[in-house]
Amino acid sequence: MLKLYKRADAGHIGTSLSCLEILVDLCFRRMERDDALVLSKGHAAAALYTTLSLSGRLPEADLSTYYKEGTLLAAHPPCSGKIRAIPFGTGSLGHGLGLACGLALSQRFTAKSFRVFAVLSDGDCNEGSTWEAVLFAAHQKLSSLTVVIDLNGIQGIGYTKDILNLEPIVDKWRAFGFAVATADDGNDFGSLARAYDSVQSSDGPRCIVARTVKGHGVSYMANRVEWHYLPMQEEQYVQALSELGSPNAGSLCR
Q: What was the pLDDT predicted at 251?
């Protein structure tokens, strides 16, 4: 994933690192072939593409086209529908959950059966359209829907608590009719597993509040607002690879 960002000289690295374990957990542990994943926080597209590729849902060769002219793998998930594992183009925050609700509701008319997972951000939870979708999901008892909130506490221009405080976020989602569990360390697979297990038996929609770290795993990015947008310089890239234990530290595939 870091190689994709370095080759493209692109930002949104911190937001991809905060949700990477969430996506890996979904694609390798929870999702079956027909299940759907909607990444509402579409600016973390590189994390999505990498995880889809490594889990066999996207050809690995496609990763080399990331951010290039004519690519399907743009800075945000594409709207083309040409990638089966990406049902919708996303990135304008507040739309992903409504789309996921539509997928979940559609099963009542198609006789199909699958689960729908929607990954949201702090910024998604600032949007009124998200809360409209929350009300709709609870009212319709969309039991196939699971929302995962990548709650890293940082948005594009500052800390969430200073921009539009979401707390007490667990109480809010529960009051709106969701079964809610918290992963106190959303970058830890064990913490995520315990949260999923605690709401598994719900007969309505579920929400996992995953408290994560923006820029997780890279010391100079962790909990830093500027790493919502900044690209990496060469020395920063090498340090990030080293801190994440990459055997390719010091080299960049071009």
A: 43
